[in-house]
Amino acid sequence: MTMAETGATVGEGAAIDMGGAAAVDIEAFKVPRACLIAGESVAGALDELVARVANELRGGTAPGDVRVVCANPEAALVLARRLAASGCAQVAVSSAREVALNVLADPAAQAAAGRRFKDGAPRVLLPYECDIVFEDLKSWGSRPRRLRKMLDFMYRGFTELADDDPAWLFTVEEIAVRKLLTDDLRYLGAVIEPEIANLACKALRTDDALRRRVSAKHVLVAGYGNLSRASQLMCHLLAAERLTVAAVEGGCVEVYESYPYEGGVREFLAINPEAEQVEATRTNGLSVDEFVWDDPAAELAGVADLVADMVADGRDPAQIAVVCFDQTWYARMARELAARGVPVCGLYQPLKLRGDFSDVRRSLAIRVATALRIVADGRDSAAWRCWMGFDDELAYSGEFAKAREAGLAADKLFADDLAGWDGYEASRRFFDTCDGKTGFALLAYLTWAMTGDESAPVPTQLRALTRLGADATAADMVRWLDRNQLAACYEPASGVTVCSLETLEGQSFECVVATGFVNGAVPSREYFDLSVVTVERQARMREIDKRKMVHLRAAASRELVVSAFARTTLENAQKHGLKVDRVKYDDETGEQMALVSPSELVEVLRG
Amino acid sequence: MPGLTNEERNDLSVLCEQRAATYGLLGRLYHSEVDEELLAGLRKASFPQGSGSDAVDEGYRRIATYLSRNRDGATLDLAVDYVRTFLGHSNSGVSAAYPYESVYTSEKRLLMQEARDEVMALYGLAGMSVENWVDPEDHIALEMEYMQHMARLTREALAAGDDDAALERMGAQKTFLCEHLAAWAPMFTKDMKAFAKTDFYQGLAYLTEGFLRMDREFLKTVIEG
Question: For residues A228 and A4, what is the distance between their CA atoms, to the nearest angstrom?
């Protein structure tokens, strides 16, 4: 692809205008040698990446001089295994976010970013913790809906390095909210996900010594198209001599980082016009088979039989993936497969710990989770902020604002400033009583403390913590929560992978089976309802869905099976948000049945 | 239907005539309020018992009970109940048993959906005119009229000795019942029972429910036999 074909224009000062995103200074990101591996197949791209790493090591490059970056932790785990199998076990493989967090752990990076973290380790706020920060931002006076849109704009801006432009925010309101957000995060010693790579990039650009410390001679990136712009450009800064990136053509899907940057490949070629270009192809063509079953139960059984037959015929279960578009399908599909003796490896969706912090009945899980964090680390500012914010509709944001102003002036973190808070001493004494408690006993004790009811069950969302064992400490549980709230959980077992579209990232299978592929599951029901979405938004949704289908198709190296069903009960259809073509009475069962259609997007899968 | 004997053809023809009459009655009762003329006719009629369907028998029983007990002001009483049952008092979409297929077969209970377009096409194929009809064409009265029209056409084919045409027309009726009328009428009659206050329209709900089920079984037996 030439510069002209990228559609990028070169303005004054050798900046590249990608037409929307902030202009990029080429020289700051240029890499001596660059290579783009692009194509329609993940398998081809992974083969090429692994081969290049192996070649590097065979050529005498030290493992420490090579770094592999992936779009999410699961992809990193999978690629690390492949590299180990190819004799490259010592090469560091991690997600882009992990790389950015490691950069931010450096005191020089923190100084450049204007953020101080307790003990140097960046504390990433979890979604429910962001809800408390949202209350703090409301104190500016913006209405919640307006504030959310503003934050959405800002978060996207962070991921695209839009804040490089001093005029990026120009209304008093936007500037004030941004400052309030930054002050809040500074006082909590924390970062939010969209700014992680942004801050790392800034630090690397302003501190050459830091950049030399953390960079590697050769950086290879898998799933480049699914990274945010800031992560993509961060990879440029980390590559001292060579940068090799792999991307699926036409695929750009949110698999871990918010706001994956669609213009990433174009920008890569604009920055590195002399880059080597390699096409990632499938060795054989892709066969696409389609099935339409009568109803979901028939589909589950039918797909499970299909997969069981494949395994019985000698196919390697680890080369088969079953993709479910609905979360409730995962567990059911896994059970159907297990019932047929098929080994299953489940990639579960992240936990969603959320709740109304003003009401204990609707926030028990997040209260227990917050308590665990404080038991694990009594100086976790973000956890204390949540703890002190419970039971008040405004999360005591007024009081916190005063403390924040004084604390920042004294260069303190919130955890250093708690002595003056009402209720702190009592809370501290309570947390001291948790010392020595572990496993289920700790969870039950915390649940009792929150509810006052000895028989109250541990919140459902946290019961999985009991799998860690009776000796699991609060710190063990917090590590597990962090891992599972921000990424899917990969159970390292060999078997048929049952997963979602997003958790397919960075993986390739000989056969991919897409189940529940009906209108309403994908595209979403909202897409079909022009009383809910505008025509413009509908077009954007279509583009995003098409990219997801390209991503799905790319994961299959030989065979793609698309499975749908024709009808289900109206209740079930409404519960799962399916698009109902017709309602029909079933005389035999006396139920109202919904007739549904296979997804319109099957055309994209056919290729 | 393998070659019919004359006797079988006659029996089938009589049955089709009876079916046409029942569909005609149902269509008329759904079309508009009962007027004095119709009321007088109904009072003179004798309703079958022991039809083989509990719902049909219950339907006729309730209608007959109403007709025998209510003399003065019955047309006004029935008109009020007609409005209450089929028109309702608001536009909430759930305040009456709206007699349109689209309402029951679209998720959002809207009028003029695909069902209406489909039945329009079928009416046209059958040569049934709906020129003077002002409401959406998937009204239950029109769908009943379609079944009546097709039953008559079947009888004509039998009378002409054209068994193949008769079979084809019966096939069309079975398909129409399965894909349209009987696919939504049970939900509609359930609502009727919730809204109607008179035994008359309660009875109509039972009658409709039972008759459609019987007719579908009948058509299935004849076609597969």
Answer: 24
Q: What is the pLDDT of residue B91?
A: 73
- Count of CB atoms within 10 A of residue B37's CB? 9
DSSP state of A533: S
Test A583 with B114 for CB contact under 8 angstroms.
no
Amino acid of residue A275: A
pTM, full prediction: 0.84
b/e map of A204-233 (b: 16 or more CB within 10 Å)?
bbebeebbeebbbbbbbbbbbbbbbbbbbb
Q: Are A249 and A41 in contact (CB under 8 A)?
A: no
From A248, A261, A136, select the one nearest A190 (Cα to Cα). Answer: A136
| pLDDT over threshold 50, residue B7 | yes
Positions of chain A with pLDDT lower than 50, given as ranges: 1-13
Are B184 and A570 within 8 A, CB to CB?
no
Shortest Cα distance from B119 to chain A (angstroms)?
14
pLDDT band at B225 (very low <50, low <70, confident <90, very high): confident
For position B153, what pLDDT does the model report?
96
CA B158 to chain A, closest CA, distance in angstroms equals 30
CB A546 within 8 A of CB A553: no
Identify whether the C-beta of residue B100 lies closer than 8 Å to the C-beta of residue B181: no
Instruction: Give the closest residue to A60 by CA, choosing from A289, A229, A217.
Output: A217
Q: How close does chain B come to A521, measured CA to CA in Å?
A: 16
pLDDT of amino acid A351 = 66
Dump pLDDT digits (tens) for A315-336.
999 999 999 987 778 888 989 9
Nearest to A98 by CA among A73, A77, A126: A73
CB-based contact B106 A585, cutoff 8 Å: no
Verify whether the Cβ–Cβ distance A587 to B186 is below 8 Å: yes
The three-state DSSP-derived secondary structure of A206-229 is: HCHHHHHHHCEEEEEECCHHHCCH
* Number of residues assigned to chain B: 225
Q: Within 13 Å of residue A156, how many CA atoms lie on the same side as its CB?
A: 14
Mutate to test the interface with B, among A582, A588, A591, A597 (most CBs of B within 10 A): A582
Q: What is the DSSP string of B83-135?
A: IIIII-SSSSSSSS---BHHHHHSTT--SS-HHHHHHHHHHHHHT---TT--S
**Amino acid identity for residue A559 in this structure:** E
For helices A144-159 and A229-238, angle between their N-to-C axes, nearest 10 degrees: 30
Instruction: Count other Cβ atoms within 10 Å, centred on residue B200.
Output: 25
B-chain CB neighbours of A584 within 8 Å are 105, 183-184
Q: Is A144 in contact with A138 (CB distance < 8 Å)?
A: yes
Name residues 453-472 of chain A within 8 A of B (Cβ).
Answer: none
Could you say which DSSP state residue B34 is in? -
Taking contacts as CB-CB distances below 8 angstroms, the residues of chain B near A574 are 107
Note the pLDDT of residue A347: 66
Q: Which residues in chain A have their CB less than 8 angstroms from residue B100's CB? A: none
- For B185, the closest chain A residue by CA position comes to A585
Chain B residues with CB under 8 Å of a chain A CB are 104-107, 114-115, 182-187, 213, 216
Residues of B in contact with A587 (CB under 8 A): 182, 186, 213, 216
Token pair belonging to A43: 């398998």
Locus of tokens 């022009």: A530
